[in-house]
């Protein structure tokens, strides 16, 4: 589902909450509640449940923004350049026709996205790096972006617990 990117008085807070929601969704699909995640009567409310509702919009995005780690940078996708980012080969924002990236597939049906692929992902990025990447995305002041987040391997343990979310929120609450 595409959601409207709303302007906020506290864009970094909104970006942090979106990341918490993504992490909650990713980790909640890992096989049910984990001990200590609030399932045993804890009164703590996960950050994702405190997000304001957003309204979906119809149509195609006017930009594609990718946050995350090397999985979305095209790293090691060219055998002659092992270990290097080859962004034109990114599955998300790549321009190489042989890859047929998400960007190219949207471009084929709606040309307004042309040259509006924004790859903020970087090799080795962690969940905490997502906050800065999300802030950069918010700073773009885009009206209808499709935001893709690929993060998991570097520091996320699933299923996450309430303490994981609380710790993340504490580290980033000063961004309000």
- Which bin fits the share of residues in helices? 25-40%
Encode the helix/strand succession as letters: HEHEHEH
Q: What characteristic shape results from the CA principal axes?
A: globular
Physical arrangement of strands within the biggest beta sheet: 2-1-3
- Mean of residue pLDDT? 77
Uncertain stretches of 5 or more adjacent residues: 1-9, 28-43
Radius of gyration: 17 Å
Total separate domains: 1
Q: How would you describe this protein?
A:
The chain is α/β, with parallel strands linked by helices. It has one domain. It has a three-stranded parallel β-sheet, covered by helices on one side. Helix 2 links the parallel strand 1 and strand 2. Helix 1 crosses helix 3 and helix 1 runs antiparallel to helix 4. The radius of gyration is 17 Å and the shape is globular. The N terminus is likely disordered.
Observed structural traits:
176 residues, alpha/beta, three-stranded parallel beta sheet, 3 strands, globular, disordered N terminus
Give me a quick take on this structure.
By secondary structure, this protein is an alpha/beta fold. It is 28% helix and 9% strand. It starts with 10 loop residues before the first helix and ends with a helix.
Per-chain topology:
Layout: H1 11-28, E1 63-68, H2 102-109, E2 117-119, H3 127-139, E3 145-150, H4 162-172
Parallel strand pairs: 1-2, 1-3
Helix pairs in contact: 1-3, 1-4
């Amino acid at each position: 589902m595409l959601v409207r990117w709303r302007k906020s008085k506290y864009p970094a807070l909104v970006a942090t909450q979106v990341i918490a929601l993504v992490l909650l969704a990713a980790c909640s699909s890992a096989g049910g509640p984990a001990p200590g995640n609030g399932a045993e009567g804890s009164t703590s409310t996960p950050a994702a449940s405190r997000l304001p509702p957003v309204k979906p919009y119809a149509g195609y995005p006017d930009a594609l923004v990718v946050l995350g780690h090397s999985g979305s940078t095209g790293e090691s996708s060219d055998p002659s350049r092992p270990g290097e980012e080859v962004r034109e080969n990114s599955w998300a924002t790549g321009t190489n026709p042989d890859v047929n990236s998400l960007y190219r597939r949207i471009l084929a049906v709606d040309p307004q996205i042309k040259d509006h692929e924004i790859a903020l992902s970087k090799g080795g990025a962690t969940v905490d790096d997502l906050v800065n990447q999300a802030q950069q995305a918010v700073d773009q002041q885009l009206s209808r972006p499709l935001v893709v987040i690929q993060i998991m391997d570097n520091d996320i343990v699933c299923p996450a617990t309430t303490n994981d979310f609380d710790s993340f929120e504490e580290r980033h609450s000063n961004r309000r």
